[in-house]
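User: Can you help me understand a structure? I only have the sequence.
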Amino acid sequence: MLYSLFELLQELDVPGAGVFKYVTFRAAMAAILSLYLSIIVGKRVIKVLKRQQIGEEIRDLGLEGQMEKKGTPTMGGVIIISSILIPVLLLARLSNPYIIIMLVTTIWLGVLGFADDYIKVFRKDKEGMHGRFKIVGQIGLGVIVAVSLYYINKGADIMTTIPFFKNNEFNYMWLTSWAGDYSNILGWIVFGLLVIFVVTAVSNGANLTDGLDGLAAGTTAPVAGTLAILAYVTGSVVWANYLDIMYVPRVEELAIYGAAFFGATVGFLWHNSHPAQVFMGDTGSLTIGGVVAVFAIIIHKELLLPILVGVYLVENLSVIIQVSYFKYTKKKYGEGRRIFLMSPLHHHYQKKGIAETKIVVRFWLIAILLAVVTLATLKIR
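Assistant: Let's start by predicting it. Here is the structure, written out as tokens:
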């Protein structure tokens, strides 16, 4: 919105209007505005949630300090979502197709998560929305993203980046080269299936990570900042040539979204750090995970996700391993056995008696380290 206004002012030779054409300037403004909204406006949202008695229902898992959190306002993900959407709508070039995809992703998953939280809070169903409906929603988003990218790229071959390899560009059509004239369309189908898998896995990973005060927001903030940097260098001819990485036209505009995403998650920590004044709920956790996945796919860095969102990955794997091993041992020995004291992994450390704040800070440090390693892959090959 403001971008169009400043374009008009620039045409009229208004002094200072030209600064608005720089992505770096608008990204900085987006980060500042989203930080302000999530901290200041977030306070009012929390008051409304308290007034409406939208509190978290806690299942007693025998964890220290757990029951003290009962009644803490949830659905705080609306703070993150609004703190992303408002700066992006104001500062980004809304004609950019990648910005449109990210806006659709944010709203789509926000609605999906909100519906899940609504069932938990207002219908008093602790299980929330049935898992199959969440999966259908995530698959639906994956299909929309894949089809949108197909039309944006006009059906051309789709490439991605393989970390740590010198010749690090990989063409998905290589997987279907055996199909002859049908290799292109089959390659896009393979890519579409990958998009669905990545969106579902990362979104659920973020959802599982949201189990301690400040854990999901704090581990996502460095991810958001890294994605903003990757979008900027990938969409810049100068930086892409200098770093010898894949150049993707028009994705530099996503740096504004990434900056707003970063500011929103950092600002949310103001309220969500221990002891939390608000929880993001599925409204926030499903959204931030899906946003990370789609953002990485758009900038052709989806194969970097196992490194960048390593915390999500480990949390996901801990649940899969725990459940699989329990079922296997129950079938074999007649009694289910566990590898971890409790899953997801952060609860395992709680059971070991480690303080919640110490677990969270250590996970933050790991997330920052993984973000640095991800950026290092631009040159380490």
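Now, to help you interpret it: The beta strands are 159-161, 169-171. The mean pLDDT is 88. Let me know which part you'd like to focus on.
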